[in-house]
Amino acid sequence: MTTWRSDVLGDGYEQLELPLGTDPDGEGEISATLVRYQPASTDLPDRAVLYVHGFTDYFFQQHLAEHFAARGYRFFALDLRKCGRSRRPGHTPHFVTDLAFYDAELEQALEVVRGEVGGGVLLAAHSTGGLVLPLWLDRLGRRPGGVRGAGVCGLVLNSPWFDLQGPSYLRNVGTALIDVVGRVKPQALVPLRKLDTYGRSLQGGGWTYDLEWKPLTGFPIRFGWLRAVRHGHARLHEGLDVGVPSLILRSARSRSAPAYDPSIDTVDAVLDVRQIARWAGCLGDRTTIVPIPGARHDVFLSEPRPLATAFRELDLWLEWLDGHGSAETSADAASVPLRPLGEHA
Fold this sequence. Notes:
This protein is of the alpha/beta class and 345 residues long. The chain has nine helices and nine strands. It has helices at 62-70, 103-116, 129-140, 146-149, 168-184, 197-204, 223-238, 273-279, 304-334, and strands spanning 5-6, 13-22, 29-37, 48-52, 74-79, 121-126, 152-158, 246-251, 287-292. Strands 1-2-3-5-4-6-7-8-9 form a nine-stranded mixed β-sheet, sandwiched between helices. Strand 1 and strand 2 (13-22) form a beta hairpin. Helix 3 crosses helix 7 and helix 5 packs across helix 7.
């Protein structure tokens, strides 16, 4: 029996623990946390959104939940194992050695969401979550019934992490090093400079969140986790089939800086948006990619003007998705062969 309880986000938000048993990475008992936004109303929509965060992140974007609710979707968000609400003492934040381990909580979450709504489920994700979900959908598509049989109707990715940023030699030589060290010493730290550039930009933009769950400089990156990500990138680059139409939103420009300055507020300061554009076609099915001028790495945490643009593009695509789904249903019905006159079932 599912037991929802009050969430830290306050009125209208509840959370549900999803037990996952013993951590395959050896850090004891683990669980994930499903959050739902359920404003006081007896008229609950029959379709839903299930959102997945990125690295050094968790769900706190209430305005996103409320926007989807206004569009006629019930909203759910998943804090993955060892992330945000799901992290417990002894857990290494966000640490997994195989992105496929997340299938367990994704499938549990989808089952709960489908049990609460009668219609389709739209999946949405940010950054690393935007890599995790396509890989999962590709695996799900190989099962009987496929992705649509599981109730998934579409995919929205917000600045998905499709490749390792930096020059090509770093990706080639660096990946070989990551693979060796990540296999032998998965908990070893990747020697990177700590930067609070993006975090300072978010704070200056008025976005507030729990700094224990989302520190300004990010959580330390470990070789075992990065190895899992690079294996995920390689699989993506071979070509996936997510089984449903996708919308990809990204900033129009990238820029990195050693310290915060106001220009960081209008660019992706985390990923290289050219890589997102390059690999977007690897998702399969229909893919729409929209650059948002002036957007941050999380386009839904952008300044007011690009944020409004991102929501407008999202709404236009959702309208298209509704029409596309209706057209597919009509086409399926039209494809049923007609019996000759006089023939009865």
